[in-house]
Amino acid sequence: MSPTATDIGSATAAHPYLTGLHTPMREELTIEDLPVSGTIPAGLTGRYLRMGPNPMAPNPEKYHWFAGDGMIHGIRIEAGKALWYRNRWIRSDRVASALGEDRTPGPRHLFDTVNTNVMGFGDHAIGLIEAGGRPVLFGETLETRTYTDLDGTLRGGLTAHPHVDPLTGEMIAVCYDAATWRSIRYLVITPEGRVRREVRIPVRHGPMIHDCAFTQRFAIVLDLPVTFSLTAAIAGYNFPYRWNEGHKARIGLLPREGDAEDIIWCPVDPCYVFHTVNAFDTPEGGVVLDLVVHDRMFWKRTCGPDSRQCGLERWIVNPIARTVRRVSLDATAQEFPRTDERRLGQPYRYAYTMALTDPFLGTALFKQDLVEGTRQTHEFGPDRHPCEFVFLPAHEQAEEDEGWLMGFVIDAAAATTDLVILDARTFEGAPQASIHFPHIVPPGFHGNWVRDAQ
Ligand SMILES: [Fe+2]
């Protein structure tokens, strides 16, 4: 299957997110019995799913990497074999219409592009977007089944980065909406998939809040100076968020069962954060928040991220004094942090990040030992570009780094992609397995391992 005849290549020569490795795929592929180097761990049964933008007919003058039509990529693994690879566009109205298909059922809110994250959720894989869009549910072979409002409990959109508390099974989300500039929403979603708590939090300027974090006591809100730009929206940019010098940077500690008036706001220096790693309470009553911090964002470029520097930091928050002490953990540019999600909201030791040399691409992964303060590097080679890697524990009782890291690695010279599985304990060593497919999967955003019957 392919999109309607639109010559993407000729129209977009100068756009960095429409050319080179980012050239959108033009077809939906199904490739069975993929070749494998090494040995896929026998206990892995499920699918690795990864989401990213793959625009069908973008206007290169206004296109932003974050706003393209979504595509899901998936690999089915079972009994040590890679049974299939599939890529499928998410059937928004625009995509379904271009493909000549029926409209995807389910309730929309604001817009219906979904392109940022995919995770297991109840019995389904759920595709996620922020800024007011609602999630979609996928079928086993990655077909877009339906948009969802969580049985009528989700008023408005969700977020690309909800986090499940492993101790309660509940999902925590901080949601913003491109059409609502004076408030954001904190949601608690039950393991059964219904919103049980919604707190509307007053803000100014419509901040873009990409991620959140939580401890056992608090949900953490990142209210930072990237905000909705009416000027950019009127000018026709499909991603109308810009650096805003007039927006006061702060983080909020919201007691998890508290209301908006209970939130403890703490000022921080202007900066931007896409992704948190983790957070936890300290015995002294403080909060530790680990995150990747950009010095600024969306201040010049209108097509993608444009910070001048970024690094891994630990923010030590004193809720009584309302202060934040910023400690640099690693000033090397890196992004897409992941950790063992059984430790979310609790003290932990390891983080895994992607080294950045290009604005959002590099050739290495880092394993950060936050207790010892050391870093290991897995270097893939000059033409090989890893994307986000997710950590999978080897088994339920596995220790924190006892397990696998899994993610795409694009080989720019060979124009191929591997799904690479690393042993987290022998991080710098040869991969445990590499599953090969004969095309470039454009760099995207987030992926997860979705076990069967999850
Ligand atoms: Fe993200």
From TrEMBL:
> Per its UniProt record, what Pfam families does this chain match?
RPE65 (PF03055)
Write down how the cofactor binds this protein.
Binds 1 Fe(2+) ion per subunit.
Q: Which GO terms describe its molecular function?
A: carotenoid dioxygenase activity; metal ion binding
> In the UniProt record, does the keyword Oxidoreductase occur?
yes
Query: What cofactor is needed?
Result: Fe(2+)
| One of the GO biological process terms | carotene catabolic process
Residues recorded as binding Fe cation, renumbered to this chain, are 161, 210, 275, 446
Q: Which UniProt keywords apply?
A: Dioxygenase, Iron, Metal-binding, Oxidoreductase
| The enzyme's E.C. designation | 1.13.11.-
Q: What family is this?
A: Belongs to the carotenoid oxygenase family.
- Designated name of the protein: Dioxygenase
Organism encoding this protein: Paroceanicella profunda
